[in-house]
Amino acid sequence: MPSFDIVSKTELAEVQNAIDGVLREVSNRFDFKGSKTTIERKENEITIQTEDKTKLEQLQEMLKGYFVRRKLDPGALDWGKEQEAGGMTMRQVVKVKQGIDQELAKKIVKAIKDSKMKVQASIQGDELRVSGKKIDDLQAAIAMVKGLNIEQPLQYVNFRD
């Protein structure tokens, strides 16, 4: 029975390359000279710390731009709350989304079932498996899921006959 998987994976090596690019640009920019600006990544979390709100907003835009340059979807970034840190600085924790959470998976499965397509969708951990009798039905299911306007980037992998 033909099937495919819907996953959401972000390449962490490319995320690190994007962060390195932002840090290079920060070291060269005149408006960041002498500022206490740091960007650190631990696993799926990026911590941005700088002096004021305007610099924080500039860093957010730069990070999104470098994500696009590295062919990563900026929708994979889950922006945390901006908070004041010690020493008159601002901090923001950004999570890199990996995998499909249960709530989103249930929403996608419900949308597939409501569409009355001849496919079955099942949740398998942090990914979805969609199977059906015809490849055309699976391709229609991919098109339908793409049309749902989900903010998180999704990949369609393991398309099997």
The 3D shape can be described as elongated
Share of helical residues: 25-40%
For the largest beta-sheet, the strand count, sense and barrel status come to: 5 strands, antiparallel
SSE string, helices as H and strands as E = EHEEHEEEHEEHE
* Overall domain count: 2
Any guess at the CATH architecture of the largest domain? 2-Layer Sandwich
Q: How many β-strand stretches?
A: 9
CATH superfamily of the largest domain: YajQ-like, domain 2
Q: Indicate the CATH topology of the largest domain.
A: Alpha-Beta Plaits
Whole-number radius of gyration? 20 Å
Describe the overall structure.
- By secondary structure, the protein is of the alpha+beta class.
- The chain folds into 2 domains: 67 residues, Alpha-Beta Plaits (2-Layer Sandwich); 85 residues, Alpha-Beta Plaits (2-Layer Sandwich).
- It contains 4 helices and 9 strands; from the N terminus they run βαββαβββαββαβ.
- The strands form 2 sheets. Strands 2, 3, 4, 5 and 6 form a 5-stranded antiparallel sheet that branches. The protein has a 4-stranded antiparallel sheet with strand order 7-8-1-9.
- A hairpin with a 2-residue loop joins strand 7 and strand 8.
- Helix 1 packs across helix 2.
- It starts with a strand and ends with a strand.
- The relative contact order is 0.23.
- The model has no long low-confidence stretch (mean pLDDT 91).
